[in-house]
């Protein structure tokens, strides 16, 4: 009895670029391959979509791919019961073929009360969504319980998980799935994890975690903790160049065995950092060209697609030079028929300018979503202005983003009315 575990496909990422089909091609490969290998259930660990309100073109392609398991014969698994999950939420369509169980990730999370795209897929019968609940299946190898917590803000993750406090189902093989940073396994420096490996509840046979975009394995309470990594390259870091993309096949026999399956449709990716000290623009042009050429000559795994090449520039420019004098677009153009080149020059500075660009650089490095960046700036500014927190800024912002101006206005009005009452009461 086998199941597949796939993480972070980020469907629709890089839309409008030469890479816009990559996320679809790679998730399709993962799903088709897992079915060929005999998966009787597929677990998707969140960030199925890259955005919380995907465009129609992304929906159409995604639903086409996510309907493949439903059309793939009948599963050996039978849903026997749910814990904390209203069975009415599960469409009978979702149990017709090979079932897909999914979490929503941070990219899909929406303000409470609004439907996120994973819940929309559940409504269509394309998957079963888990958030603080459990599905128990009957399998030819005994009972299998899949427990899931979708993404919550990192600062609350430990508390929220402890409050949910999932318990392994007796007599079953138990799998716990999450979409969070855990301990040293963090997505970025933007949000520090509150959850550490020992905080994971004990007694499960397997721990699965999305969110981390490169594959990793460790143990929690003596049992495997697997991070399959995303099927798509989203961060273009060194570690993504070194770690193959793929998914896990988990075999349920007397216990659980897992195997990593590498995808073959993924573009080759080469990464290099270059350190400079007082470099002139012409030297820079020459060195970067030479480096791209050198990376192009590296051994290839996938010769069908243009490779991705990212060169990150660090250090300082010559005194008179400014970063804008260096035109990386000319280099990108020059190699356009051989590679998709990305030149990162945010960390190359003209002497003396360092401080001014510090903030921008930090924001960029955090790779925060626009929303999160705006929220961080707003919260920083409010704190600096010495504002006492009178209302939940995040909730208010959420309402405005969702175009629920009337509710937003009401929540502000309530605060104002309260203040007025205090004023009147005091006089
Ligand atoms: Mn992700």
Number of strands: 16
Mean pLDDT rating: 91
* Main sheet characteristics: 7 strands, mixed
What compounds sit in this structure?
manganese (II) ion
The proportion of strand residues reads 15-25%
- Model regions low in confidence, pLDDT < 50 over at least 5 residues: none
CATH class of the largest domain: Alpha Beta
Radius of gyration: 24 Å
CATH homologous superfamily title of the largest domain? Metallo-dependent phosphatases
Q: What overall geometry do the principal axes of the alpha carbons give? A: globular
With strands numbered from the N-terminus, the spatial order across the biggest sheet is 3-6-7-8-9-11-10
Compact overview of the structure:
This protein is of the alpha/beta class. It is built from eleven helices and 16 strands.
Layout: helices, strands, pairs:
Layout: E1 2-6, H1 22-36, E2 39-44, H2 56-66, E3 78-83, E4 100-102, H3 117-123, E5 128-129, E6 133-139, E7 142-148, H4 154-164, E8 172-178, E9 206-209, E10 216-220, E11 223-227, H5 238-242, E12 246-252, E13 256-262, E14 269-279, H6 281-296, E15 308-317, H7 328-334, E16 340-349, H8 354-366, H9 370-384, H10 393-401, H11 405-426
Parallel strand pairs: 1-2, 2-4, 4-5, 7-8, 8-9, 9-11, 14-15, 15-16
Antiparallel strand pairs: 1-12, 3-6, 6-7, 10-11, 12-13
Helix pairs in contact: 1-2, 10-11
